[in-house]
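Final report, closing paragraph on structural work. Over the funding period we assembled a curated collection of sequence-structure pairs, and we close with a single example.
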Amino acid sequence: MKVLMINKFLYPNGGSETYIFKLGEQLQKMGHEVQFFGMEHEGRCVGNRVEAYTSDMEFHGGSLLTKLSYPIKTIYSREARKQIRKVLDDFSPDVCHLNNFNYQLTPSIILEIVKWRKKTGKTCKIVYTAHDGQLVCPNHMLRNPIRQENCERCLGGNYLNCTKGKCIHGSTLKSVVGTMEAYFWNWKKVYQHIDTIICCSQFMKSKLDTNPILAEKTIVKHNFVDNIEWRDTPKKDYVLYFGRYSEEKGVKLLLQACRELPEIPFVFAGAGLLEGEVNQVVNVRNVGFQTGENLEKLVREARFSVYPSVWYENCPFSVIESQMYGTPVLGSRIGGIPELIKEGITGELFDAGSVDDLIKKITLLWNKQRTEAGYQDIKEQVDFTSVETYSEWYCEVLM
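Its predicted structure, as stored:
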């Protein structure tokens, strides 16, 4: 089977890139051919045989003329159609696997795939993995950045609400462009050409299913995990938060809880706009952004980790990773997080946005861990899918 992985970024940038790199690598190990299409960038680490990519689009720089042309290019891209056609003609894939493609690549690439299929008579499936809500929400996040609240006003096709709420970076112009893009591609019914939509959570499926065209195509499969060595690790006396220091991640809420629990030491591993506030809390030790063995050690040795997001998370790897290292998770009851935690077994849930419930659950887990009376061995309770098993399922779905 030949698989063309399509993603706007072809360098390590986030969860969708981790997904396409690891899935692509495993498919190749299984004997399948994999090539990649997306945007050219100095950090690009995967590609295709004909070296065809779109130009790097930097929205925060460039000449005035370039900036003025961006609104048109983010809705429809002739360049993306031209470049992907080169790859299609050369590679002749059996599957075109879309990931994050809006703005830099645009849905126009779907039209080119369909056009190529008709001309060649090639049976090529179009698959899409929903890493976020981009097919039903112009700003992808189902959240208004100005009001700092979750928002579902555009669900059902009411995209004018994006403009009214200045939902894209708090900018009227960018929000107008996002609104136009959503209306244009839904009017063109471009998403009807997608054969299968893989949703990383039941929650995300429920949001995409508000569009009748998408509802017929969605299936649920949680993200895969790396093969992690199970070993007994002595726990140390701290509660861990690791991730971005930002409002939507619930960091302000967690810091409020930390202040109310001065007897409990917390470790924060990450970076972001709220770093100054993190450094001001007496019982919080900020170790900065960590990766690799250093992060693994922090997670393994923590009494438990906290994932206090206030926005609609899809399938956060941090929640999965913590449990795979044998560390229970206290997560907010929102988005796809509850699907990943077995209450009382691999962790606990608290009411999203409630500092009182957060304090209550932190105290509960801390006392259980301190008295060795629970959550000591979650190895047999964790049943996340490995990349090998996920890839086998993937091939069964597509073949």
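The radius of gyration is 22 Å. The longest helix spans residues 172-187. We thank the funder for supporting this effort.
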